[in-house]
What we know:
It is built from 17 helices and 13 strands.
Amino acid sequence: MVQGLPATPIFDPVNSLKPIFVVGTRPEAIKIFPVVHAMRAHHRFDPIVITSGQHPDMCADVLRMAGVEPDFALTLDRKTGSLNELLVEIMRQLDGVFTELIEAYNPAGYLPRIPGVFVHGDTSTAFAAAVTAAMLEIPVVHVEAGLRTYDLHGPFPEELNRQLIARTALLSIAPTMPSEANLIRESISSEQIFVSGNTGIDALLWAVQQPVSYSDPRVSELMNRGATIIAVTAHRRENWTHLTGICEAVERIAAAKPEVQFILPMHPNPRVRSVIEERLSANPQVILTEPLEYIEFAHVLQTAKIALTDSGGIQEEAPSLDTPVLVMREQTERPEGVLAGTLKLVGTDPDRIVTATLRLLDDPDEYARMAQANNPYGDGRASQRITEALQYVLSGEDPPQAFGPGFSRSFVLANTGVDYNTLDSQPPQGRDQEH
């Protein structure tokens, strides 16, 4: 058993409720497994996990590490690689799985045991699952809701996905108060929104407590000798045309600081890898690795002097480890970190990236200001809050303490048409016999 996992939950296999979680990418898996852990530990919930097949290997690796075995694993038939093909294929297969689960757990005349489909963030998997569930009249719960740039092409398709998911969600779990404010500005009732903090912080704080063994001996050697490390990630679609400039910035920083080493886990997309390998593979200060296991990367991020990234999750995670983040994007849907001083937007221009990085390396006061700023994204208890929020909506017992202002369960219940106060009614056992 992986250290730190909750004990096997004790629940009534007949009356336990079956929240469904759909994940398809590594970031989704990282941010949703703590919620699955928390639900498992609750006496009323027995979560069902579905993997969409969007990034099958990377998603499976994270779930395996976290001790989460999917109940359903979709295998996608992709020929063109287009976003529309991906969406259609996921929706087609999820429609069949959701229909099977409805027949097993929500049969007519019985108390429904599927309280909702949980989707996370802004991926194509999340959008496809949300629309499919909504069309089957299953409530949608959107975790990490309300992030916005209001530029549909920055990032694309993530900004489009998350705005569209917001229109399907009955309950929006916002990570922070500014995210809640975005939803309210879009005429989503505050009674539908709960502020939890970000589950990515829960996952990170769990991961750095786990024992680590590095898959790449070069990384192990750097970590063991206490080298000055800059962690680099670059993969976002809108940055594909800027990868050459990002690589140039890394080369220039390395030349200016020969004592600094770079660890750059490469994204599996060949368009990303080819540029990075061509420009940086011969540089002795740069270690290009295959994607690191999540526990490995959490320890790297904890040790790193600086995180140089276009990732969304790292913007939230690194500040919990006192690691300053330079964001290689022109805008971010996570402005809380910029305001708090944990993040700095440096864009994709090599000159700006180099200047900002060297300033942090050369100016102890500037470095301390970023490293010691308070992380606005969470405190490691988001998953427990989400579980308590769902229990509260269904039973009215023990209102959760939000990471910010609370919400009313009345709106959510009024729109389900279900009386969950009769929670102990006896529906058919469905898949419980094989679960």
